[in-house]
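User: Continuing from earlier, I have the next pair ready.

Assistant: Great, send them over.

User: Here they are, in order.

Assistant: Folding the first of the pair now:
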Amino acid sequence: MRSWRAHLGRARLLVRAKLPPVAVDAVLTAALLFATAGLAHRDLSRSTSLVVFQWLLLIPLVWRRRAPLAVFGAMAAVAFLQWLAGAPLPADVALLIALYTVAAHSSRLRTLSAVGVLELGALLASLTWTTHGRTTQSFIALSAMVIAAAVTGVNVRTRRAYLAALEDRAGRLERERDQQAQLAVAGERARIAREMHDIVTHNLSVMVALADGAVFAQQRHPEKAAAAMRQVSGTGRQAITDMRRFLGVLRADEPDALRHPMPGIAQLEPLAEQVRAAGLPTRLSVSGNPAAATAAAQLTVYRLVQEALTNTLKHAPAGTRAEVRVRCSPDSVRVDITDDGPAATTPADPSPTASGHGIPGMRERAAAYGGQLDAGPQPDGGWRVSAVLTLNPPQDGDGAR
């Protein structure tokens, strides 16, 4: 029994997959024509009008899914004419199929209207064609079939709507996942671009400054020129090391990737020494406990100081002095980088650039920690960059209160 049902289910799925709905309905109509013609063979052979009613009741089923209400209306009209002619036919079962189609494909109001029409037809048929005083029993039986057809159609429509809603929800979730993945990729690309920009720009700026100094000193002070070139070599090697370390962190299969941490507040002094060697006198002061900041926050502090000093080194005139102050607290880290250059020669234009790095990138770094960054000229001359990083951002619930 189960095997027979399984084969029937597979055959049904195959038919639905291979044949269009109109073809399936045409096969159904042909089967009903043969079946009902066999049941009413004697009546049909005696009356041509019954043959006409037989065909008019069944042929519209071919288009039942294209125009459910129109097909039902046409078949109901034919059934009414058949009742007037006083000729009951087995083909009247097609009205139940038409009602099922209306319930499965139309609105609730149209379904109720179709049920009302068939209930009226059931009442007329029971009053006219029932014998032996069984009018009530006949009407109850016909009404039960009408209600069963309508309920079956409504259930099919409800299930179809439910499946459509599930498909729509799955589609929306998939689109949201794709968008989130794209945003994550874009954010990661921006982060990598900022890191690459900071590493390359700073080291190249220092190397250019050292090389220029070596050119000017090679005639009168060859020992200073040689020292500057050694600094260029050391800075280049440091740039390569930083680049390899950064790329190693990005590679999950790198065995030593996590053994070499990225720079933090403790590396600010070597950074200041490097900038001093390039010709920018720099004073560094760190107060508080840097250990209160996470490694990522310390990397952000390092990159902010590195970018600000690089801008000063590139744009400020000779003789400019820089000062870096880092103040650590349990809840935040404040960074101030200032220089005493002339007001007319500011380190950089704070407006966004085409690449989106530089000062705009510094603002993005600060914003990632719920902080802010201000950059601009000082009233007495020079340039100032101030940033505050929040180490313990308030939760949404706390913020709402």
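And the other member of the pair:
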Amino acid sequence: MAWHGHVVVHASWRGWLPATLADPRLRPVLGARDWQRLHALTDPQARDRFAASRLLLKHTAGAVLQTPPDAVELASKAGGRPYLRGCDQIEVSLSHTGDLLVVGLNRRGRIGVDTERGDRRIQYSAVERHVCTPAERRRLAALPEEEQQRDLLRTWVLKEAYTKALGQGMRMGFTQFGFDPDHRALLTPTGTPASHGEWSFGTFALDGGHLIGVACHDAGYGDEGDTAVSTMLDEGFLGEVVDLLGRTSR
């Protein structure tokens, strides 16, 4: 992350699930807010996946911030987008499908991640006018069916990732923007460039059969690679936190 400015990790949520959600060691890692959210969920699998996603995110953020996972506090913005309380310099994105979890962190700007099964079939004729720009429809219509399916799925995960990065999700129409044939450049609905290099996009096929889409924004914060909590946070704020922790531990 110090080199590229962003990191994307993926894992099976079952591999991050504790032996029991009643494990007393789980509560301090999740924190009071997520502990309450966990026990408000009624579906057992949803509870398991929620706990695993928070553990993966906190351990990833802890590694980046060089701090213990239980010191990482998660909160949610309007619309449910997670963020790291006290570390606004780092943007966060989460996605899951089936047993796969994906976490993205970016210290230079916004980030969005999305994942789908690589063998998911999307009926092009049913979604083309809801998902694709005119330029994308022209390109996809000229492709053989199997190639069309692969291209459409890549387009889908990138559009999901980009709208997540903007904090819009499905509220933003997918026909309002498009991608070039290589799925690297952001385009207007008519096919002209819509950015000046500040956005980067990528899709990655996993051995387990999943496809991950990543949208990363570079807001021009520079190349400072230090993400340790002790140097990222305001010194006055950090001093107050350390003092408070010292008082509460006595």
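Worth noting for the second one:
The chain is about 35% helix and 20% strand. The CA atoms of residues 65 and 228 lie 4 Å apart.
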